[in-house]
Design a protein that fits this description.
With 262 residues, this protein is of the alpha+beta class. The chain has helices at 33-43, 75-85, 125-131, 156-161, 166-169, 206-220, and strands spanning 3-11, 20-26, 47-53, 60-65, 70-71, 90-94, 100-106, 109-115, 118-122, 137-143, 148-152, 175-181, 188-194, 199-202, 224-229, 235-242, 245-250, 252-261. It has 6 helices and 18 strands. The chain has an 18-stranded mixed beta sheet that branches. Strand 13 (188-194) and strand 14 form a beta hairpin.
């Protein structure tokens, strides 16, 4: 039996049981893919992050698994992994499809540097029907690590009331983001649905804000803003567009530390 260090972190959270939980499992060498997928299924969190030591342009290699699949980019689990592994001012992670991602200290918070995801106007009646948002603007990604849809709704109330048909949405292989101008002191509000990747509604999604940052920077006329992901758990994300990169800021809370036996 092998014992592995296990930490569960609530990312983009200022107290336990808010934000988005992620499991972080540092390894000395990669386990078989099917074993890492089985661990992620056992954890049943949006993502389980695995690392191995690296050299050169990064401190660690990093991979992320949902309960059903490996994903190309995950922001909240990267922030959580930085929270667990950072020793000084920053820590770098080499990923397979999203380049090197860096987590840095920012006072009591952390920042995460991600590649921007760019979207453009499109038509997708099937997506709108699955989301139950007939009167909405669809914008589909043409650049970025993951297939993404940004669906602009009339107001924050419509975002909070959104009730997708998850079975229909599960047949559409992308991350669906519904968003609008914010309320309650936030500039932007959103929710994120990814049943095709094993997560019906993601609590707080860093990779979604890699698309929301350039999308809303253009509409707000400024490069930085405060966003709130209005899931049941909820989470605040500080967003800043920096050229072709997006810098996200937030805090993390460790909720579980232990040993995983396989």
């Amino acid at each position: 039996m092998t014992e592995l260090r296990f930490t569960q972190v609530d990312a983009f959270a200022d107290r336990p049981f808010t934000g988005n939980p992620a499991a972080v499992i540092p390894l000395e060498a990669w386990l078989p893919d099917e074993t890492m997928q089985a661990i992620a299924e056992e954890n049943n969190l949006s993502e389980t992050a695995f690392t191995v030591p690296a050299s050169g342009d990064a401190d660690y290699e990093l991979r992320w698994f949902t309960p059903t699949t490996e994903v190309a980019l995950c922001g909240h689990a990267t922030l959580a992994t930085g929270h667990v592994l950072i020793e000084r001012d920053e820590v770098g992670f080499r990923t397979r499809k999203s380049g090197v991602l860096t987590v840095r200290r920012d006072g009591d918070a952390l920042t995460l540097d991600l590649p921007a995801t760019l979207v453009k106007p499109a038509s997708d009646d099937r997506l709108l029907q699955a989301l139950g948002t007939a009167n909405a603007e669809v914008h589909l990604s043409y650049s970025g690590a993951e297939a993404t849809a940004v669906v602009l709704l009339p107001d924050a109330a419509a975002v909070r009331a959104c009730a997708p048909d998850m079975k229909a949405l599960a047949a559409i292989d992308l991350m669906a983001i519904v968003t609008a101008a914010g309320d309650q002191g936030y500039d932007v509000v959103s929710r994120v649905f990814v049943p095709a990747w094993g997560v019906d509604e993601d609590p707080v999604t860093g990779s979604a804000h890699a698309a929301l940052a350039p999308f809303w920077a253009k509409r707000l006329g400024r490069d930085s803003f405060t966003a709130f992901q209005a899931s049941r758990r909820g989470g605040r994300v500080e967003c800043r567009l920096s050229g072709d990169r997006v810098v996200l800021g937030g805090t993390c809370v460790t909720v579980i530390e232990g040993v995983l036996r396989i």
